[in-house]
Automatic annotation (TrEMBL), chain A:
Pfam families to which the protein is assigned, alphabetical: CCG
Keyword Metal-binding: yes
UniProt keyword Phosphoprotein present: no
Gene Ontology MF: a single term: 4 iron, 4 sulfur cluster binding
Annotated Cysteine-rich domain residues: 32-102, 148-235
Keywords: 4Fe-4S, Iron, Iron-sulfur, Metal-binding, Oxidoreductase
Domain of life per record: Bacteria
Record protein name field: CoB--CoM heterodisulfide reductase
UniProt cross-references to InterPro entries, sorted A to Z: Cys_rich_dom, HdrC_iron-sulfur_subunit
Recorded GO CC terms: plasma membrane
Length: 263, 437
């Protein structure tokens, strides 16, 4: 499979004297986390299929600093941000797309104050753009009529009021979209935000991802869709805790689109 | 003529309003203990938000039942208070129902009729609220932070409103002049009137008592506000006006940190240079917040405005899964500590004397702060746009940047970011390996 992926880096394009139309910000999870890497690849397949002129920073990319900021280390965040902005500005980047709502939020909202001004898109927004502009054609999908429920990532939904893009994209699959009782602006967090992903939870009577998985299970779905690598971990774990991993798949919107098109 | 009642009335009025003004001044002083924060942008959007959210209660009705009854109480209460104007004029000048003689009869009847209907509706709504709190026992009114004063406060205010509404109706019902004036305004009170019989003297005594108790009650209520979550009926307005307009996910970048980072990254800066003269005796800026004075004035205004409704807590993922964190408690603690600091200043002739306490640890524990997922559900849920998350983040900043007191796992996560640009201990050179896997 891997030989099919075309993933130019900025350095390579630069050497050829070319400029990409958009930078794909892979993010730390998308680069290193085994499950999230699959989302990254699925998204690249979509980009390749739609002939998008994109590039990644590759080894020149570094953590956005979002995690450090939410963990209270403003200092580390700003160090990371200033470093990344230097790289991004040197490459004259104008447009960025990312599969990680945390990077999305950070790049979009918190970098401008430090000198990094870019148009930043979440991958669901970009996929929607590809579909609407006709660059990506969604043919009959395997997900016809499948019961899919979408879990809103906090940093895409509440944090940036984007509730429609992922749903619009999912709707192209002719699936049956099910809404959880808590959805959109009242969606429950998966439990990973605010750097929780990297620590044990405080004492309580339940884990947050379990509660959120219960919300999802109540819709009796075949697939739980997400748009965030951390939500992916949390919801997958939740489904395992509920011993439903054989019946219910947790998939990123990009994976659904890619696999529906046989990519 | 006997001027004694007028004089007594004037004294009560002056004392009541005077005490209120004194407390409002204290309120301003306490809020100004917070750090400066410039919020002078986007005036038209801010007015709009205030009109929609505070005046129009747009966020209240997201929960339809409480929203509906709240609007009744809110509209009723404001409109009925127009009647206070007449009471004040009558009280000061010794007139009786001045409105009857200066307004067209039908208009006066319409006004009082509307007030009576609203009073009855408010009474019903308040009763519903009382039942929700005390019989149905809605969960969000019974979290740990709702014991003692906050719990009583919630009920006291309901009793207050019941009594005030009753007094208003009784006052009208026993006022023979009004009942017989044929204004048609006695829509509700005409049915209460017969209960009190028809002895003019008894009626007059009851009417006068109700009248006095009504105005005294309103003044007491006004002064009760400062000590109560009911301050929100005033502060909801500035609070929604000054609320954050940027996306909820956008956390402010700390400018003091920016200065230091720029300095560190500046290749021309001499790391061994002595700090410029002027900085010599300045204390270095404290990062984050450990006490109320480190928070912004907006955080403090938020704290005074909080209605303790618990909508935030009832949507908080940490709280829903049994963690100690409750965004409502964050707001209540901030207010309590601010009050304590304020009293300290009063007792020490205008300066704060270290009392060995602070907001962190003595009120809000690190355990609560670290349970937050920064999901913004609390901010979204708050009917008057309070931002508990901002206080949590400010306090985390203090814990991490001033005390290096992050949980161990977070420290190693941050060390990884520092060393290899990712939260995991992977080599930055491997960042693109996924491509070939
Ligand atoms: S942001 Fe924090 S305090 Fe607010 S609801 Fe989410 S977890 Fe709770
Ligand atoms: S912060 Fe807002 S939602 Fe929470 S208790 Fe106070 S007023 Fe209610």
């Amino acid at each position: 499979m891997s030989e099919q992926l075309t993933v130019p880096t900025m350095a390579e394009l630069m050497a050829e004297g070319k400029e990409p139309d958009i930078l794909f910000w892979v993010g730390s999870a998308g680069s290193y986390d085994d499950r999230a890497k699959k989302i990254t690849k699925a998204f690249v397949k979509i980009l390749n299929k739609a002939n998008v002129n994109f590039a990644v920073l590759g080894t020149e990319e570094s953590a956005t600093g979002d995690l450090a900021k939410r963990a209270g280390n403003e200092f580390l965040f700003q160090m990371q941000a200033v470093m990344n902005i230097e790289v991004l500005n040197a490459y004259n980047i104008k447009r960025i797309v990312t599969c990680d709502p945390h990077s999305f939020n950070c790049l979009k909202n918190e970098y401008p104050g430090l000198g990094g001004n870019y148009e930043v898109l979440h991958h669901t927004q970009f996929i929607k753009e590809l579909i609407t502009s006709g660059k990506l054609d969604i043919k009959n999908s395997d997900y016809n009529g499948k019961r899919i429920t979408f879990h809103d990532p906090c940093y895409l939904g509440r944090a940036n009021s984007e509730y429609n893009a992922p749903r619009d994209v999912l709707n192209t699959l002719n699936a049956t979209l099910l809404e959880m009782k808590r959805s959109k602006s009242t969606a429950l967090c998966c439990g990973a935000g605010g750097a929780q992903m990297f620590k044990e939870p405080e004492k309580g009577d339940k884990d947050i991802n379990e509660l959120r998985t219960e919300d999802a299970l109540k819709t009796n779905p075949e697939i739980i869709a997400t748009g965030c690598p951390y939500c992916m971990t949390m919801m997958s774990d939740g489904v395992k805790v509920k011993e439903k991993e054989n019946e219910i798949k947790v998939m990123d919107v990009a994976e659904l689109i890619a696999s529906s098109q046989g990519l | 003529m006997n001027y004694l009642p007028n004089i007594i009335f004037a004294i009560i009025l002056v004392v009541g309003i005077g005490y209120f003004v004194k407390n409002v001044k204290k309120l301003f002083r306490n809020i100004k203990l917070g750090k400066a924060k410039d919020i002078s942008d986007n005036k038209s959007q801010r007015w709009k938000n205030m009109a929609m959210i505070a005046l129009g209660q747009s966020k209240m009705v997201k929960r339809p039942v409480s929203g509906f009854f709240h609007i009744i109480v809110y509209v009723g209460f404001i409109i009925i208070n127009i009647e206070v104007l007449e009471i004040i004029i009558d009280g000061l000048f010794g007139t009786h129902r001045i409105g009857l003689s200066v307004l067209p009869k039908s208009l006066y009847g319409f006004l009082i009729g509307a007030f009576e209907i609203l009073a009855a509706l408010v009474f019903v709504a308040v009763t519903v609220f009382w039942i929700r709190r005390n019989i149905i026992k809605i969960k969000r009114f019974f979290n740990a932070e709702m014991k003692g004063w906050p719990k009583n406060d919630g009920n006291i205010i309901l009793y207050f409103e019941m009594v005030l509404m009753t007094l208003f109706l009784v006052m009208n019902a026993t006022d023979l002049a009004f009942q017989n004036a044929g204004t048609g305004g006695n829509v509700i009170s005409q049915f209460i009137s017969p209960i009190f019989g028809d002895n003019p003297e008894t009626l007059n005594i009851i009417e006068r008592s109700a009248w006095w108790l009504h105005i005294i009650g309103i003044l007491v209520f006004l002064n009760y506000l400062y000590f109560s979550k009911h301050l929100h009926i005033l502060l909801a307005f500035p609070n929604t006006y000054y609320a954050k307009l940027t996306p909820k996910g956008q956390f402010p970048n700390n400018e003091a940190v920016t200065k230091e980072v720029k300095l560190m990254m500046d290749p021309d800066a001499d790391p061994y240079a002595a700090p410029p003269e002027s900085d010599a005796d300045e204390t270095p800026e404290k990062f984050g917040a450990s006490d109320v004075q480190d928070l912004s004035w907006l955080n403090l205004l938020n704290a005074y405005s909080c209605t303790e409704c618990g909508r935030c807590t009832s949507e908080c993922p940490a709280n829903l899964t049994g963690k100690k964190l409750s965004p409502r408690k964050i707001m209540m603690d901030t207010r309590d500590r601010l009050e304590e600091v304020g009293k300290n200043i009063d007792a020490n002739k205008g300066t704060f004397v270290d009392d060995g306490k602070q907001l962190l640890n003595d009120y809000i524990t690190p355990e609560e702060l670290w349970a937050c997922t920064s999901c913004n559900a609390c901010v979204e849920a708050c009917p008057i746009s309070i931002d508990p998350l901002n206080i949590i983040m400010e306090m985390r900043n203090y814990l991490v940047m001033e005390q290096s007191a992050a949980p161990m796992e977070l420290n190693s996560m941050m060390t990884n970011i520092e060393n290899n640009g990712a939260p995991w201990p992977y080599n930055q050179q491997d960042r693109l390996n996924w491509k070939n896997e």
